[in-house]
Amino acid sequence: MSKLKLCPFCGSVVITPCNHNGKNATCINNSCPIRYLRMDVILWNTRPIEDKLQTDNKRLLDIFNDECAIGAKRDAELKEALSEIEVYHSGRP
Ligand SMILES: [Zn+2]
Questions:
Q1: Cβ-proximal residues to 2 (8 Å cutoff; 6+ apart), any chain
Q2: Ligand 1 centre from 71 Cα, in Å?
Q3: How many A from CA of 45 to the centre of ligand 1?
Q4: pLDDT per residue over 10-22, tens digit each?
């Protein structure tokens, strides 16, 4: 059996209660709106929209990190150029 995903409503850990076939999942959070729902684990873990959003989020985070790295490189180059300009205006080589 693959690892159970967290509850989509509250993010709590999910358990597989003992039953006649042992293939159901349920949320253990007493405050969760689906607390008493028992669902087949394959159906529980099938979340195409959530999976797509996670893939999109990872791709966007990768783009963000790349842009931050580019920005940091540009910042370092500008600081170096500013330093050279300051040396030039101070009259000292
Ligand atoms: Zn829950």
A1: 41, 45
A2: 41
A3: 14
A4: 999 888 765 556 6
